Amino acid sequence: MADGDQARADPAKEASSFVGRRRELAAARKILSQGRLLTLTGTGGVGKTRLALRIADGLRGGYKDGVHVIELSLLETGDLLVPTVAADLGLRDEGPDATALLVDYLSDKRMLLVLDNCEHLLQDCVRLVDRILRGAPRVRVLVTSRQTLGVYGEQVLAVPSLAVPDPARPPREIARHESVRLFADRAASVWPGFEVDARNARSVARLAQRLEGIPLAIELAAVRLRTLRLDGLMRELDDFLEIPAPAPGRAVTLPRHRTLRATMDWSYRLCSPAEQRLWARLSLFPGGVDLDTAEAVCGGDGITAVEVFDLIAGLVDKSVLFSERCDDGVRYRMLECIRAYGGERLQPEEDRTMRRRYVRHYRDLACDNRVDELVPQQLDRYRLLQREQPNVRAALELSLSEPGMGAVALETAGTMWSFSLPSGSLTEGRYWLERSLELSPEPCAARATALWVDSMLALRQGDVASAMPRLAESQAFAVNTGDERLLPYVVRISGIAAYVAGDARRGLELLEESIALHRAVDDVAGVALDLYFAATYGSVHAPERAAALGEELLALCEARQAALSRGYAQLSLGIAAWSLGDRERAESLVREAAAFTAQINDRWCLTQCLEVLAWIACAGGEHARAAWVLGAAHALWQAVDSSPTRLWYHATWHERCVEQSRRVLGDRDFTTAFREGARHGLDRAVVHAIGG
Fold it and tell me: How distant, in Å, are the alpha carbons of 241, 343, 558 from that of 303?
């Protein structure tokens, strides 16, 4: 694809080749070598994204801490901008000021940050970029937007349409122009063997002129060669655009701002009525869609479910959709400007129907794929929700703005907590919860669930002031209604709150009470999470009891083949084993947990694993290695906005490890090893920590 608003892609793995833009590539590289903020501007479809990705790919070797491309077109609200950027960088946003956390994390990084498609979040992007530039002096930012940011130090590179030739020039000269090369490249993919030669060069040049050299318009035209010859394509284009044939040596075109719109109108009219309707309906999915979801949500009211596959195939053939393979099959996506065009084609009544069907589908998807349930599909569910997160966000936004859908928003937000915890998206989870709670103040079970979930996330972020009133309201509902399935969760959060307040004895009592209550209603998922909290928090003051609870959790996870929870079970049991002096068992458990959680990018669990492995190295007399792993863990503690001193089951052992390693090595050698560990990437840290 050549559109500037396409979905994020890896330039090394692009399905279609990159054509032209040598001047823009050279200019961008020069600007970024001298300045810190470059904004690529241009109309939709002109190729801003593809150019940004190519620039980023060419500069990867120059940034020690990497190049990160963050696609913003999938965000419906600017409130999620900072959490999204933080999550892409691997930060677990557990602090009340997520922007400060992000800037602090970036403060010593040498990195290129690419923010793609900023125009709909312009003011939020302005504020974020300004703070990054002020607080992270070695970070450079590359932005694509239809508008400039206006931030101090910004340099702007306008991305023009591709160069178009004069039809009167010789064929070889025509063939060298970028617009012609793009058309020939895309035409060859649908008409094998197509090339620009003396017979067709003038026609191709005329077509490039008519389409103003706009890459997306050229691509939409090129796919028509699947069913038409070039002369037929030219006649069809002339007829639709109502452009008279130009006089020799002169080009006649539409005004530039109308060309892409007219080309999409043309593509739309070439679709069958059913394809047009499906195009409009699929515009609801910012994160793309698989076939089953398309059939479930878009079928009906004029489109039968069995027709959907053939209609999707037709839209792929016309370049309205593009397909991409993922772990469990194929997903179909639209470029942003094509998706926006399709959204305009939804009629008001159909739009209302589709919105309600869409939000209910994603409410059901969230409820049916709870990550906390101990099932063999646990990891598959987690990955599914990762893929569907943009669509879930869109569903939440729609349900919060659609009359009568507040209860659906509450159920969806209250269920997604089991994804928010392992993914580290705590701020986003609380954002949706609190908007849903504000919209639905009436007491009900869904509200009470959302209240304890919000309280739990707030406690994880250290926001006790917000957590306790939420917890109290949820508890009052559970007690007054006698809800036996809700009450254990309220008791659990009360136990965590007691630990946060420093009352370890009361905390463990409440967690064990929660375990008993969950058992009474046969809530295995609830029991498992209680066991994890009780095993970790109890490891310091009641290590034997903690070890027994950890063993039970590990056995439960293994019996139910729950891979994600098993990593946390190994961590909790490893900490308990360490507290009991069983270093060999602790090391075996925590190493395995570290290897797994690194693979799935669960940084909260991984950070704690590295911390424990540092203690183990120190106890074995490997003080230089302990200091190195402490440094690697320190970098991750910063990334997750936490510290071993904040978690009392880590604090004492951390301080002992630091003191002993520093005493043996001396301040200078300890600091050298510590800094060496902190500056290395995650992969190296994991290999060094678990490999010896």
Answer: 30, 17, 45
